[in-house]
Amino acid sequence: MRLAILSGSVFGTADFLADEAAERCAAAGLQVSRIKPASVDALLAADAQAILVCCSTTGMGELPDAIMPFYSELQTRFPLLTGIPFGVIGLGDSSYGDTFCQGGEQLRELLLELQAREALPMLRLDASETVTPEVDAEPWLDEFIGLLQNG
Fold first, then answer.
1. Strand partners, 54
2. Which of 33, 65, 76, 128 ranks highest by number of CB atoms within 10 Å?
3. Each residue of 36-78: pLDDT tens digit?
4. Alpha-carbon distances, residue 138 vs 17, 20, 24 (angstroms)
5. What is the biggest distance separating any 2 CA atoms in the chain, rounded to whole angstroms?
6. Structural domain for 11, as ranges
7. For the chain, how many structural domains are there in total?
8. Which range is least confidently modeled, 25-29, 91-95, 104-108, 138-142?
């Protein structure tokens, strides 16, 4: 199974998490394309059979600058990803209330609009509760990998 992993980060945490996820997924036997920086052309060229996005939230619930061009291009080009399983790991801070993990949620909603299929509900990691999101994400990642391996 070919898995494309993309990330959008402000301070590097989501990028680091995506790198760690890529290693874990590759070790489990998936063919991983770590797409950095995220671009629609690179995603389409990867011929991905599954997608994983790790994204932080900035400001008042916005996407990080690093992934905004990808998000805008996905909206403009609107390449249908019909039936492709995906997962999103959102990073945020629950003290921001309603905008907690909103960056990841925006990407999740766009992937659903593009007819991709959410393999597993979005993982929301709270910066006010964890200092090791890569460790906290492991159980979710293992479940995601299992779902991809078993169709």
1. 7, 89
2. 33
3. 999 999 999 999 999 999 999 998 899 999 999 999 999 999 9
4. 10, 10, 9
5. 39
6. 2-149
7. 1
8. 91-95
Which residues are registered as beta bridge partners of 50? Answer: 3
pLDDT in tens, 72-97: 999 999 999 999 999 999 999 998 88
Assess contact for 36 and 82: CB atoms under 8 A: no
User: Closest by alpha carbon to 125, among 1, 3, 5, 9?
Assistant: 9
Nearest CA among 70, 83, 88, 76 for reference residue 115:
83
Rounded distance between C-alpha atoms, residue 141 and residue 106, angstroms: 20
- Could you tell me the two tokens for 75? 């909206």
Q: Are 119 and 144 in contact (CB under 8 A)?
A: yes
